[in-house]
Amino acid sequence: MTNRDPRGGDALDREFDEALALAKDPASQGRTAQDSASQDPAQRPGWSSGAPGAPGAPGASGASGAPGPRGPHRHRPATPWPDARAIAARAPRKSRPSPTTATLDGTPVARPLPEALGHVLAAPLTALTDLPSFDTSAMDGWALAGPGPWRLPAADQSVLAGHAEADPLPDGHAIRIATGARVPPGATAVLRTEHGAATGGWLYAAPAHPVSPGQDIRPRGQECRSGDLLLPAGAVITPVILGLAAAAGYDELPTMARPRVEILVLGDELLRQGLPHDGRIRDALGPMLAPWLRALGAEPLATRRLADDAEALYAAVAESPADVVLTTGGTAAGPVDHVHPTLRRLDAELLVDGVAVRPGHPMLLARLAPHKHLVGLPGNPLAAVSGLLTLAEPLLRTLTGRPAPAPCPAPLAAAVHGHPRDTRLVPVVFREDEAFPLRFNGPAMLRGVAVADGLAVIPPGGAERGTDVEVLDLPWSTAWPGPQE
Ligand SMILES: Nc1nc2c(c(=O)[nH]1)N[C@H]1C(S)=C(S)[C@@H](COP(=O)(O)OP(=O)(O)OC[C@H]3O[C@@H](n4cnc5c(N)ncnc54)[C@H](O)[C@@H]3O)O[C@H]1N2
Ligand code: MOO
């Protein structure tokens, strides 16, 4: 398409984003007042030729026009979305280990089991014992030796779980036993309580339940032998893994150090409580980011709210003790967008300066020091989510030593409009193995992603119904059907 708009590509792109957000994807039902006011931009001739009130400033996304952090300013082309993720994943590996910094040098941190949840295993988990560690009764009943009937002890004796090992059982004898108890030496099987009858000092098996050798005995080492590999390094420690580790003899686990992340939420307009008023809005990112980062394996240190003040931002970034500083807002080219100037002052190395993705294209990644990175998320809330998944997730994945998740493609249940050049990330829900695109996917909206199972990766140009697209997982999902239904 010939672009005759004197405002340049970025201004047009912003209109495109807003229009895409309001476009009624085929999966949507019902219309909002907003929908009615818009037309599908891809169908509207001349849609990009200007909208009242659209910003008129030409210029590079995420650049202020001043000299760049390294070298003179130039209009850097946005990094393609897959490349941006790869750069973020590689960024920590390119930093040489430094003895003076951080715990992120790969040295495992031993954590007691109750504190290990959510951390990443720094070494393979091998069994410290056989499991079960002794021949165990799988049922309440009788341990017996040889073919029946079996003589029972004169006194009412039982072999109980956790008690001393019982005396050897002679052939033709039986003794009551509890589930989990050590099977006495010489026992050849266990007969369940409901399958036997004890009478006159003898035990008889019910005719319908003849005894076979070894029945209802869990032999030592059935699940694993001491030294067996139970889990590879890199596994995220779940509640079940805590249980398995305890069963296998562990009191503590070797874990990767968590990268420490400081969150800096920028914006004079942001309120921490109450209703929006006088042009001010609630901070939607502060409450969301710390728990999200925790789910990505990081240790959020603090969430600080900063006014749009260049000095305050410079001091906060320069003095941050974190391994990763995460800023929100201030990435674009407005009069109070201080992230780029701050990075220049700090002589930071910009690894990614704008990504060819919608929403979120002004996102950036910078190296502040060999072991200190900054992820700049755009202020629009869904754009910030996009930056979190595009740059923060791969960076933290490498820093926490986790493997890349297996790609998770799903067929689209409806066609999705694309950006002409950029990747789009669109909230979707899974229904019967199909990904349904959700409405309310505009850069400033969280309503769609709040009920999404993931974000579908829509290639430039869009995707037809039935096309397999990659879906980025969210670390949770919701059963609420959501506004698409
Ligand atoms: N001249 C240009 N203007 C803009 C560009 C551009 O390339 N050139 N990009 C647009 C895009 S796309 C986005 S996204 C935003 C990114 O802006 P910033 O990262 O500088 O963020 P702000 O301007 O501070 O805020 C943008 C928007 O988001 C709201 N916001 C900010 N923080 C929060 C928060 N914590 N919770 C809720 N909402 C928040 C803020 O009020 C603004 O409405 O720039 C475009 N402009
Ligand atoms: O439109 Mo902006 O893509 O990043 O919100």
TrEMBL record:
<dbReference type="InterPro" id="IPR036688">
    <property type="entry name" value="MoeA_C_domain_IV_sf"/>
</dbReference>
<dbReference type="GO" id="GO:0005829">
    <property type="term" value="C:cytosol"/>
</dbReference>
<feature type="compositionally biased region" description="Polar residues">
    <location>
        <begin position="29"/>
        <end position="41"/>
    </location>
</feature>
<keyword id="KW-0460">Magnesium</keyword>
<keyword id="KW-0479">Metal-binding</keyword>
<dbReference type="InterPro" id="IPR036135">
    <property type="entry name" value="MoeA_linker/N_sf"/>
</dbReference>
<dbReference type="Pfam" id="PF03453">
    <property type="entry name" value="MoeA_N"/>
</dbReference>
<comment type="similarity">
    <text>Belongs to the MoeA family.</text>
</comment>
<dbReference type="InterPro" id="IPR036425">
    <property type="entry name" value="MoaB/Mog-like_dom_sf"/>
</dbReference>
<dbReference type="GO" id="GO:0061599">
    <property type="term" value="F:molybdopterin molybdotransferase activity"/>
</dbReference>
<feature type="compositionally biased region" description="Low complexity">
    <location>
        <begin position="44"/>
        <end position="67"/>
    </location>
</feature>
<dbReference type="GO" id="GO:0046872">
    <property type="term" value="F:metal ion binding"/>
</dbReference>
<dbReference type="GO" id="GO:0006777">
    <property type="term" value="P:Mo-molybdopterin cofactor biosynthetic process"/>
</dbReference>
<dbReference type="InterPro" id="IPR005110">
    <property type="entry name" value="MoeA_linker/N"/>
</dbReference>
<dbReference type="Pfam" id="PF03454">
    <property type="entry name" value="MoeA_C"/>
</dbReference>
<keyword id="KW-0501">Molybdenum cofactor biosynthesis</keyword>
<keyword id="KW-0808">Transferase</keyword>
<feature type="compositionally biased region" description="Basic and acidic residues">
    <location>
        <begin position="1"/>
        <end position="14"/>
    </location>
</feature>
<feature type="compositionally biased region" description="Low complexity">
    <location>
        <begin position="81"/>
        <end position="90"/>
    </location>
</feature>
<keyword id="KW-0500">Molybdenum</keyword>
<dbReference type="InterPro" id="IPR005111">
    <property type="entry name" value="MoeA_C_domain_IV"/>
</dbReference>
<feature type="domain" description="MoaB/Mog">
    <location>
        <begin position="262"/>
        <end position="398"/>
    </location>
</feature>
<comment type="pathway">
    <text>Cofactor biosynthesis; molybdopterin biosynthesis.</text>
</comment>
<dbReference type="InterPro" id="IPR038987">
    <property type="entry name" value="MoeA-like"/>
</dbReference>
<comment type="function">
    <text>Catalyzes the insertion of molybdate into adenylated molybdopterin with the concomitant release of AMP.</text>
</comment>
<feature type="region of interest" description="Disordered">
    <location>
        <begin position="1"/>
        <end position="110"/>
    </location>
</feature>
<protein>
    <recommendedName>
        <fullName>Molybdopterin molybdenumtransferase</fullName>
        <ecNumber>2.10.1.1</ecNumber>
    </recommendedName>
</protein>
<dbReference type="InterPro" id="IPR001453">
    <property type="entry name" value="MoaB/Mog_dom"/>
</dbReference>
<dbReference type="Pfam" id="PF00994">
    <property type="entry name" value="MoCF_biosynth"/>
</dbReference>
